[in-house]
Prior knowledge:
Helix content is 41%, strand content 20%. The protein contains 6 helices and 4 strands, in the order αααααββββα. Strands 1-2-3-4 form a 4-stranded antiparallel sheet, sandwiched between helices.
Amino acid sequence: MATAFARSCVWCYQHFAAKIGNRKYLHYLDEFDYGNKKTGKDVTSFWLEGDLRISPRQQIDFLRKVYFEDLPIQSRNFKILKEIMLTEETPDYKIWAKTGWQGEHGWYVGYVESPDDVWFFANYIKVREKSDLVFRKQLTLEALKLKGIINVAKP
């Protein structure tokens, strides 16, 4: 699962979605108050080409629930999710995040934790060509740096 998450392995998610089924997905989308809570006709692609929609604000609200473990799931599952979401760890901060992409929609969502505070982010960009994908994360990290939340070393 960690590899599938890190690489956004669509075929893996589609396999799981088919096994989980539409009824269970609708139940959890409602329980989690996630986006517009719609799956559409095909449970194996509702987050890609289906009816599911979510705004940056809704992404932040959901990330807060993950961070504060305020969702109806077992504590063990929060621990697993947070382990696979951890993308960067320095002495000054840690970043838990996920990229997303479907057609012209690009996302980089997550949160940054320092010893003193936590900041949530949801960056949505319009992707015109595949080479734009690098900007999802790059723009977010630059904004966090400009706000003084993180220090990003220059390559």
